[in-house]
Amino acid sequence: MRKLIIASNNQGKCKEIKDLLVDLPFCVLSLKDIGLEIQVDEDQDTFEGNAIKKASEIMKISGEIALADDSGLEVDALGGKPGVYSAMFAGIGASDEENYSKLLAFLKNTPAEQRKASFCCVTAVAYPDGRIIYAKENCDGCISFSPAGENGFGYDPIFIPDNYNKTFAQLGKEVKNLISHRGKALQKIKLMLSQECIKDGCVK
Questions:
Q1: What is the pLDDT at residue 118?
Q2: Going by C-beta distance under 8 Å and a sequence separation of 6 or more, which residues neighbour residue 150?
Q3: Helix 11-20 crosses helix 181-200 at what angle (to 10 degrees)?
Q4: Which CATH architecture has domain 2-200?
Q5: Residues designated catalytic
């Protein structure tokens, strides 16, 4: 079975991706699984740029097909910030709690109707032969006034998706994977990977 390496050190993200790709004809492995300790600099100014760079770098190092995503939270009241800098909003190496706490502090006096936000995710796959495929998806919602829920990671405790009254961290992985930016982008990538497998003859 061919290997698919997840180009991420975020174990919460890796678990989400593994869950979503579980029925593909790949052995899906994280960087930790293959004993690779590397942090690819996310120095591009778009989600697409960062996702493609990470996937390409890990593909070159590992020699295997690599998948990466770049995602972030875009808050209307903050002019789209933190965007591509979501993971380091409170500084390099900041914890999830530090990042979302800083965001809540910025929105302290912002009323409910002005707390619109959107999660964006670009998922990219790089093949050793140079092929690159990617998909982009969004999930619209709003920012809560305080964190809630124990599931998920990142900004999940403060993001309430449209048509729900709970945060991602309260909804659980089944619902989140169905409606989230990452879940929808991975479903697109999953279909593309299946089609690539059929074309390459790795599945009948």
A1: 98
A2: 169
A3: 50
A4: Alpha-Beta Complex (3.90)
A5: 70
